[in-house]
Design brief:
- By secondary structure, this protein is α+β, with helices and mostly antiparallel strands.
- It is 38% helix and 33% strand.
- The strands form two sheets. It has a five-stranded antiparallel sheet with strand order 2-1-5-4-3, sandwiched between helices. A five-stranded antiparallel sheet has the order 7-6-10-9-8.
Length: 249
C-alpha cells in the first residue's frame, strides 16, 4: 500500500492496493485520521514513528491494520516526512503486508521452543561430534550420563582417546556406521569422566558434505548400564545354579 498523510494525520491519498488488501474503499478513508485504521494499542508507536521521521531518515516499524472484515493484518510501515520549504506538509508511506511472514516466524519460534524444551528435558542423550571425535553438542541428559558438570567440560573431551572402553573401541562404531551410514540399537561401552564404564545403546548416523565426505556424527544414546549389569548378575546366578545342580548327588 502507498499512502500520504496531511500534517494533521488525515489520509490524503491511497493506491488501489489498499482496497485489495484491507477490503476498504479508498474513498471512504480519504480525509479521515489514519488512527482509525490501526489497532488502538499500536497508536503510540505509529505517532512516535511519524515524529521520528521528522529527523530526516525514513522510519520502519510494524503495526496492525484493521480490515473491513474486522480482522487485523500486520503491516511493515516505512514513512518519510514530506517537506515544503522549511516546513513539513505531511508524510509519504509504504506498507508491506507481512501477516503470513510474521505468522511463519511465530510458528518457527514456537517450534524452536518445543525443540529446545525436548532437547533439554528428554531423558535420552543427544549428541553431535566431528568425524575425528570432538564433541560439538550434548544435551543435559548426556552430560549427566557422562558425569560432567557442564557442556563446556564435555566439549573438551577427546572421544577417540577417552570416550570408549577398550572392549568396544570407536573404530568398531566407525566400521558399523560406515556400512550403511547409520547404526540402530548399537551397544558399546563408554567411559565416564571418572573412568567408570557406561553401557549405552546408540542410534546414530553419519552427516556428509556435498562431496560425500563424513564431517559429523549425530544421534541419541540410552544408558543401559543397569540392564546390562542385571543381565550379568542373572547369568552369573544361572551358572552358579547349574554348577550346583551338576554337583548334587
Amino acid at each position: 500500500v502507498i499512502y500520504t498523510l496531511a500534517r494533521d494525520g488525515s489520509i490524503t491519498s491511497l493506491n488501489p492496493a489498499f482496497e485489495a488488501i484491507t477490503g476498504w474503499p479508498a474513498a471512504e478513508w480519504l480525509g479521515k485520521d489514519f488512527a482509525g485504521l490501526l489497532h488502538p494499542d499500536d497508536l503510540p508507536l505509529a505517532r512516535r514513528g511519524l515524529e521520528e521521521s521528522l529527523r530526516g531518515d525514513p522510519e520502519r516499524y510494524t503495526l496492525r491494520v484493521r480490515c473491513r472484515s474486522g480482522e487485523y493484518r500486520i503491516g511493515e510501515f516505512t514513512v518519510r516526512a514530506l517537506r515544503e520549504g522549511e516546513g513539513i506538509s505531511g508524510w509519504f508511506g509504504i506498507v508491506r503486508a507481512i501477516t503470513k511472514r510474521v505468522q511463519a516466524e511465530e510458528a518457527l519460534k514456537a517450534q524452536e521452543a518445543d525443540f529446545r524444551r525436548l532437547f533439554e528435558e528428554v531423558p535420552i542423550g543427544i549428541f553431535r561430534s566431528t568425524a575425528d571425535g570432538r564433541p560439538i553438542l550434548a544435551n543435559p541428559a548426556l552430560i549427566r550420563m557422562l558425569g560432567y558438570d557442564s557442556l563446556e567440560d564435555v566439549l573438551s573431551r577427546d572421544i577417540e582417546k577417552d570416550g570408549y572402553h577398550s572392549d568396544t573401541p570407536r573404530s568398531d562404531f566407525l566400521e558399523e556406521v560406515g556400512r550403511a551410514g547409520e547404526v540402530r540399537g548399537y551397544e558399546s561401552k563408554w567411559l565416564r569422566k571418572d573412568g567408570t564404564v557406561l553401557h549405552v545403546r546408540e542410534n546414530a548416523r553419519a552427516v556428509r558434505n556435498v562431496e560425500g565426505k563424513v564431517i559429523e556424527y549425530e544421534g541419541t544414546v540410552e544408558d543401559v548400564t543397569e540392564m546390562v549389569e542385571a543381565q550379568d548378575r542373572l547369568h552369573q546366578a544361572l551358572e552358579e545354579l547349574q554348577s550346583l545342580f551338576r554337583a548334587m548327588p
